[in-house]
Amino acid sequence: MTHQVVVMTRQGCPSCVRAEEDVERICGELGVPWSTADVDSDSEWQAEYGDRVPVILIDGAEHGYWKVEEERFRKALA
To answer: What InterPro entries does this protein map onto (predicted)?
Structure first.
């Protein structure tokens, strides 16, 4: 099964940029597709994730927020 990773992000968020770089590197190594979604583009996303960006979702389920915990993230994708 191939996982799908989404980074919930927002414009002007330095932590989001770092998380995207980490996700890009790790997913690139593991061959896992990933994308970003702007939390401010949807009112439900804004309500759910707006105070915790970046939020990392794996297969639609929340995996973590604020930063990528690399070891835990890799285990979840293994």
So the answer is: Glutaredoxin-like, Thioredoxin-like_sf
